[in-house]
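Deliverable D2.4 — example input (structure tokens):
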């Protein structure tokens, strides 16, 4: 599809620069990471600022995590998440440890899902860590004949997001 973009640069009275892009199409797809967006009304009042929301959510999660660091499940999950970043060749192995920690804490997958509402996240992470032909996964040996591939950045982000959602749900359950 060919899209005709019109691009307008503006400078506000306070010196802030802005960019407006208009496309004469009904929809289009962007592949990659989610962009930071700041949505303002016609008077310049901020309606939504995704960067600020992300920073605030991260700060709130950190505060909650610190509050519950003496809880063994919290400590184990945060260690696994951190290790998934510092040991990228085994990222999915370490992220799956978060699922394992919750299953151990609640007495099984069904009980963890019922208590925390994380069935979709467990399915997503489990599929990637256990059932995909990824070098970073848990069961690499069963895929050697077919060949292994590196997980894409988007796949790793999806796995990290799923694991982070599980951690958040658990921390929220602790109060």
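Example output (designed residues):
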């Amino acid at each position: 599809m060919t899209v005709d973009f019109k691009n307008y640069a503006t400078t506000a009275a306070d010196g802030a620069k802005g960019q407006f892009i208009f496309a004469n199409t009904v929809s289009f797809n962007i592949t990659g990471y989610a962009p930071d967006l700041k949505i303002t009304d016609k008077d310049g009042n901020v309606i939504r600022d995704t960067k600020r929301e992300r920073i605030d959510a991260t700060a709130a999660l950190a505060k909650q995590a610190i509050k519950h660091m003496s809880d063994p499940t919290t400590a184990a999950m945060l260690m696994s998440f951190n290790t998934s970043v510092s040991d990228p060749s085994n990222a999915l192995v370490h992220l799956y440890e978060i699922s394992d920690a919750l299953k151990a804490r609640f007495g099984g997958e069904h009980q963890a899902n019922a208590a925390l509402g994380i069935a979709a996240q467990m399915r997503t992470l489990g599929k990637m860590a256990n059932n995909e032909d990824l070098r970073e996964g848990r069961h690499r040996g069963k895929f050697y004949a077919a060949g292994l591939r590196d997980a894409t950045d988007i796949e790793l982000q999806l796995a990290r997001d799923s694991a982070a959602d599980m951690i958040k749900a658990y921390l929220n359950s602790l109060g």
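The chain is about 55% helix and 10% strand.
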